């Protein structure tokens, strides 16, 4: 073991044993999951009312932590008095649900798309088209007009009613649904904050009694409201351990704010930094350091790779249809895979990623497949909990096509065409499709029976005319891994989807004009696009490639030369 590896191990051991309250800023590849679970293992077996809450932001991370406990022979650390779950589940189970009125049945949904509700003035707009925000510093809730999607903005642009009327009406409709027992995760977070403000003893005493520590993983994904909730718990004396990497904060659309996290973690007396990167080479660590805040030195590579290849710069001509051609005329992805293969990295160990999925060449396996397989892939997207807006829209359109084929068996064409023919609003159908997918169980060999039953029982448009079992899906779904391989085995997905993943070789597509200037002059603390690039490059273990616009190649190479980062331009 080298001296650097020993130092990284010492950091981990300190993070495992340090007393809470504790802040653990962890670089990519630092082994934070190992630290969190190891802290959990330190609890003695059979201890009553000394539980630990392990909070994550995805069901995948939740399941990984629980499985680690079982695999290590500690299934007692999964159930009561402990809690392993998502942030939304923790807030609902411990801060909201116990304090709701018992005079109605309460239902929690991810969004208002699960409820058929519209806001109506001089036209009808689905309630879930309005984005509710909450400012915990003032306790004021609002609906920013600029947060509307483009289709809703176009719809309201012709309205004779001013925006304030639409905002007030949306709040009225939402509040009426609340009185009927319907809530979304947004309302749940607001209620949690309000309960902590108005009845702190009722909420805090049970938490103190049950949990000796609350551990929050991926804290950079917290919204400002969630940070405010955690701040109240910390101030009240609950022992918190907060683990995260502010440089990987790429969920601004979820109201994540770097400054809010910085202000909160500054209150912790003990900070243990994890700077040993067990994933990437020194060259990749050095490049990643140019994409994060402050003039901090690169993280220490302790992965022990036998080589340290230079960063590959691939001048690329980007065009529509996700075509990205290297200056040689060969697809850039194939050029990268050939160079990876020269150092012993097969295409199956390569990952192609980009800011937007539309930039990536769509694998033939994803374009094809029978209807039940395509729907199963769409279900995977919804169930992931991390898909971006583009991928969610694509998944919902697959489900919408399935529903339309059942409701209108004699209609043909795109989703928009069929909706127009039957006077349906596409946005409403897509929201119904989201709810339809979310309610389905995970795919299994006889999944088609569940899908068909769900279609039959789903409320349908008044104009629908299904004919028996026509439009039903048949067969067993064939669902590949989350990142669908091409014929070469190359994996690909957008950056938001590969966060938390890694590969021996990673190619980042950078088609946006001005990327080089942004990289050189931008501030990652304020520019989420740079943080997205940071997440992408830190997925790489041995080899990193940058597909950059041809006219920006010289700027990128000058930047890497300035920071003494080894690189080769593949011309």
TrEMBL record:
Pfam families: UvrD-helicase (PF00580). ATP binds at residues 26-33. InterPro entries: DExx_box_DNA_helicase_dom_sf (IPR013986), DNA_helicase_UvrD/REP (IPR000212), P-loop_NTPase (IPR027417), UvrD-like_ATP-bd (IPR014016). Keywords: ATP-binding, Helicase, Hydrolase, Nucleotide-binding. Residues 5-281 form the UvrD-like helicase ATP-binding domain. Residues 460-483 are annotated as: Disordered. This is UvrD-helicase domain-containing protein. It comes from Actinomadura fibrosa.
């Amino acid at each position: 073991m080298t001296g650097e590896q020993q130092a990284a191990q010492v950091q981990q051991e300190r993070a495992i044993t340090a007393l809470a309250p504790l802040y653990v800023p962890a670089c990519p590849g630092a082994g934070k999951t190992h630290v969190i679970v190891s802290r959990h293992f330190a609890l003695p077996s059979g201890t009553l009312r000394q539980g630990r809450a392990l909070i994550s932001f995805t069901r995948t991370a939740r399941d990984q932590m629980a499985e680690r406990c079982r695999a290590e022979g500690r299934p007692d650390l999964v159930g009561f008095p402990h809690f392993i779950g998502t942030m939304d589940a923790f807030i609902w189970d411990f801060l909201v649900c116990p304090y709701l009125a018992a005079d109605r049945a309460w239902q929690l949904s991810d969004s208002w798309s699960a409820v058929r509700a519209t806001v109506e003035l001089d036209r009808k707009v689905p309630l879930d088209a309005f984005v509710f925000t909450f400012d915990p510093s003032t306790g004021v809730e609002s609906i920013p007009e600029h947060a509307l999607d483009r289709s809703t903005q176009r719809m309201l642009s012709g309205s004779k009613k001013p925006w304030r009327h639409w905002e007030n009406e949306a709040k009225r409709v939402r509040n009426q649904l609340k009185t009927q027992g319907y809530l979304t995760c947004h309302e749940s977070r607001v209620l949690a904050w309000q309960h902590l403000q108005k009845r702190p003893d009722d909420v805090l005493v049970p938490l103190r009694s049950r949990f000796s520590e609350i551990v929050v993983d991926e804290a950079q994904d917290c919204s400002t409201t969630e940070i405010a909730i955690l701040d109240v718990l910390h101030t009240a004396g609950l022992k918190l351990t907060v683990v995260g990497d502010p440089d990987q904060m790429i969920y601004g659309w979820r109201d994540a704010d770097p400054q809010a996290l910085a202000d909160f973690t500054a209150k912790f007396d003990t900070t243990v930094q994890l700077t040993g990167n067990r994933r990437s080479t020194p060259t990749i660590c050095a490049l990643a350091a140019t994409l994060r805040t402050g003039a901090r030195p690169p993280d220490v590579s302790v992965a022990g790779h036998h080589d340290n290849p230079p960063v590959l710069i691939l001048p690329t001509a980007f065009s529509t249809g996700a075509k990205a051609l290297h200056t040689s005329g060969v697809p850039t992805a194939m050029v990268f895979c050939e160079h990876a293969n020269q150092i012993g990295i097969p295409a199956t160990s390569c990952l192609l990623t980009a800011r937007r999925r539309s930039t990536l060449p769509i694998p033939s396996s994803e374009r094809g497949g029978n209807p039940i397989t395509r729907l199963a892939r769409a279900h995977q997207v919804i169930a992931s909990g991390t898909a971006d807006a583009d991928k969610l829209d694509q998944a919902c359109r697959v489900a919408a096509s399935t529903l339309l084929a059942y409701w209108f068996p004699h209609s043909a064409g795109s989703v928009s065409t069929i909706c127009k023919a039957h006077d349906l609003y596409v946005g409403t159908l897509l929201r119904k499709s989201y709810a339809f997918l979310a309610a389905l169980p995970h795919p299994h060999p006889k999944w088609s029976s569940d899908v068909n039953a769900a279609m039959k029982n789903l409320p349908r448009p008044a104009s629908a005319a299904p004919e028996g079992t026509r439009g039903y899906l048949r067969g067993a779904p064939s669902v590949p891994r989350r990142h669908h391989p091409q014929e070469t085995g190359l994996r690909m997905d957008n950056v938001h989807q590969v966060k938390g993943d890694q590969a021996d070789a990673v190619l980042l597509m950078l088609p946006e004009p001005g990327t080089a200037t942004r990289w050189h002059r931008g501030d990652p603390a304020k520019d989420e696009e740079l943080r997205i690039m940071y997440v992408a490059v830190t997925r790489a273990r041995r080899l990193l490639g940058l597909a950059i616009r041809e006219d920006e190649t010289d700027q990128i190479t000058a930047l890497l030369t300035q920071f003494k980062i080894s690189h080769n331009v593949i011309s």
